[in-house]
Amino acid sequence: MKTKSIILLLIFSLVIFFSFLIFRLNQIEVTLDLLFREIQVKLGLVV
Question: Which UniProt keywords apply (predicted)?
């Protein structure tokens, strides 16, 4: 019973860790996307 609960806790923490990682990656992608759009807008103003 004890080892089972420890394994469950480990899996739970891993899931939280991976979801956090995915969230961070998505955040970085979104900021890069916004930056790219801003650059496009500036280029459009220049052209």
Answer: Membrane, Transmembrane, Transmembrane helix
